[in-house]
Write a structure and sequence with these properties.
3 domains; five-stranded antiparallel sheet; 53% helix; seven-stranded mixed sheet; alpha+beta; 471 residues; 12 helices; Heat Shock Protein 90; Beta-Lactamase; Helix Hairpins
């Protein structure tokens, strides 16, 4: 059985109205109890005054006993009340009735307690409010004065009505106002829910956000930020799929043509040449896929990979070790050049995967295209120097043909190749585009410098901000 869920508006109303109603009820009951207590005190005080008045007229009789020195008319005037019926009785110490209404009960009172005692007593099928007053002069006797409580009851009922009814009306109005206010405050959230529910699965444009409440605005901004990240990811995936479908069509068709041609031949030497060509085509296709993946994952790396302090010389050393074997095979002098005086590691804040990707692409480009026009010895150098305090520059330098000023901006775009790449028919024109994208994500300044005279090589540099040393 599924649990019953309630709306946020209903939960807010319940969490506000119920405590408010409970607090009001407790407060009203306390107020009524206090009012009733003090009202009762006022009536009891008047009843006690009557008891003292009756006791003041008890005196010694001629026979040595006690007598009440008031006639019935005088007693009627003394205990007159136009709204209530008053009854009295004077009992001797032995419990004998001296004067008053016969049958008016005498409550049992401790003899040690000489203070007035208030209680409820039954008389003539009615409940009366009574006070018991014990006196010891001129002799021991007890005075009981009781009265009906019609006025007290009516007064309490009026007090109850006057107190509760306006508060109930006020509570009802407050509940109505809170319902409208909560509905008004929750409405932007409901609008946001409806906008998300009605949104087409292919529509990743930002939502319209109400600025009525800060919380809903922040929630909407978070949803829009998520939609933006999803849109970037989807765009990258579509772009990657399109690039793969477009760019791999040619090498795959070439591999198939080489294989079909080899199958029609019977000469093992032809087979060997075709297989070598197939292996080269496969290598170029793998390199292309790696670069396309690097571009597709660049945006995700910006969101997932967090910058961390990196020792620049350590990353350079690891990258050089990966390319030494290839450099030796190509007879390229691959080395490093640290600025004199750098006797301690230099730390930068970057993502290691992106920094290694930059070095791999720059060293790969230098090994591929850094071929001197005069056919002289080749050398590729990875240099680290400090152009100014607080900054460090990482450069990859070759002695190849270099580039012109007109080519510099174009080569930073995708699918653009320099004259060396076009002549060698290698690569896909993505290496420098990957370097530029990674540099942007890491916050590094990218520059490409080629001497004015042709054939003096290319220097690609990334400038980073130095970080404090990690102890």
């Amino acid at each position: 059985m599924k649990p019953a869920f309630t709306t946020l508006r209903a939960r807010l109303l319940r969490h506000v109205i119920l405590p408010l109603a409970l607090t009001w009820l407790v407060g009203a009951l306390l107020a009524l109890a206090v009012a009733r207590y003090f009202t009762q005190q006022a009536f009891d005080r008047a009843l006690l005054d009557d008891a003292y008045a009756v006791a003041s007229h008890v005196r010694h009789a001629e026979d040595g006993g006690l007598t009440l020195g008031l006639s019935s008319v005088e007693m009627g005037n003394l205990l007159f009340d136009q709204n209530e019926n008053l009854y009295f009785a004077v009992y001797l110490d032995e419990g004998q009735l001296l004067a008053g209404h016969a049958g008016l009960p005498l409550p049992v009172v401790a003899r040690s307690a000489m203070t007035p005692f208030f209680t409820e007593i039954p008389f003539q099928n009615r409940s009366l409010r009574a006070v018991v007053l014990e006196r010891s002069k001129p002799a021991n006797f007890t005075v009981v004065v009781a009265q009906t409580t019609r006025v007290q009851d009516r007064l309490f009922q009026r007090l109850l009505f006057i107190s509760l009814v306006p508060q109930l009306l006020l509570l009802t109005w407050l509940a109505w106002w809170l319902r409208r206010a909560i509905q008004k405050d929750v409405q932007p959230l409901m609008d946001l829910e409806q906008a998300v529910a009605q949104r087409d699965v292919r529509d990743l444009t930002p939502l319209m956000i109400s600025s009525r409440t800060l919380d809903v605005q922040k929630l909407g901004e978070s949803i829009n930020a998520l939609l933006t990240r999803i849109e970037q990811s989807v765009r990258g995936q579509k772009e990657f799929a399109g690039n793969v479908a477009h760019e791999l069509r040619t090498p795959l068709a070439g591999i198939r043509a080489l294989a079909e041609y080899g199958l029609t031949q019977s000469d093992p030497q032809v087979w060997r040449e075709q297989l070598r060509s197939i292996a080269q085509s496969q290598e170029r296709a793998s390199h292309l896929i790696d670069q396309l993946l690097a571009l597709a994952l660049a945006q995700e790396a910006q969101q997932v990979l967090q910058p961390q302090p990196l020792a620049l010389d350590e990353v350079v050393r690891d990258s050089l070790m990966r390319h030494l074997h290839r450099a030796d095979a190509l007879r390229v002098d691959l080395g490093v050049d640290f600025e004199e005086g750098l006797d301690f590691p230099l730390f930068i804040s970057a993502q290691r995967a992106l920094l290694e990707g930059v070095l791999n692409n720059l060293i790969d480009n230098a090994l591929r295209y850094g071929v001197p026009a005069d056919g002289g010895p080749r050398h590729v150098t990875v240099a680290i120097h400090r152009p100014e305090p607080g900054a460090v520059c990482l450069s990859v330098i070759d002695n190849g043909p270099g580039i012109t000023d007109a080519q510099r901006e174009r080569l930073l775009g995708r699918w653009a190749q320099g004259s060396a790449g076009e002549a060698l028919k290698q690569g896909s024109g993505l290496g420098l585009a990957i370097v530029a994208e990674y540099a942007r994500i890491m916050g590094a300044q990218l520059s490409m410098v080629s001497p004015a005279s042709a054939g003096d090589g290319l220097k690609v540099s990334l400038r980073f901000a130095l970080q404090p040393s990690v102890g």
